[in-house]
TrEMBL record:
Listed Pfam families: AFOR_N
Name of protein: Aldehyde ferredoxin oxidoreductase N-terminal domain-containing protein
Species classification: Archaea, Methanobacteriati, Methanobacteriota, Candidatus Methanoliparia, Candidatus Methanoliparales
Signal peptide: none
Domain of life: Archaea
Start and end residues of each Aldehyde ferredoxin oxidoreductase N-terminal domain: 4-100
Gene3D superfamilies: Aldehyde ferredoxin oxidoreductase, N-terminal domain
Residue stretches in coiled coil: none
Gene Ontology MF, one: oxidoreductase activity, acting on the aldehyde or oxo group of donors, iron-sulfur protein as acceptor
Amino acid sequence: MYGYMGKVLRVDLTGEKITEEPLDEEIAKQYIGGAGMAAKIIYDEVGPDVDPLSPENRLVFAVGPFQGTNIPWSGRHAIACRPPLTGIWAEGGDGGFREN
C-alpha cells in the first residue's frame, strides 16, 4: 500500500488548516483505488442530511495505489462529492502521467 504514500491530506477551507493523517492500511486494502477511497470518505463523513453547499460537505480527490508509476493506465484519480444538482453522489475521473 505504499503507492498511497501512507497519508491522507485534509484541507479545511473554512478553518484555513491543512493536516496530514496516517492512512489506515486495512481501509486501503478494502477500498482499493481512488474511487473506492473517495466513496468510503463520502459515505463515512457526509451524512444524508448534509446540504451539498455547506462546509460539512466534502470534495474528495483520491488516487490509487499505482499513481506515479509507469504501469499503463495507473495514473488515474477520482474526484467525488455530494453535488447540489442531485444531492446524492457524483464522481468524476481524470488521468495521465504526473511526475513525482
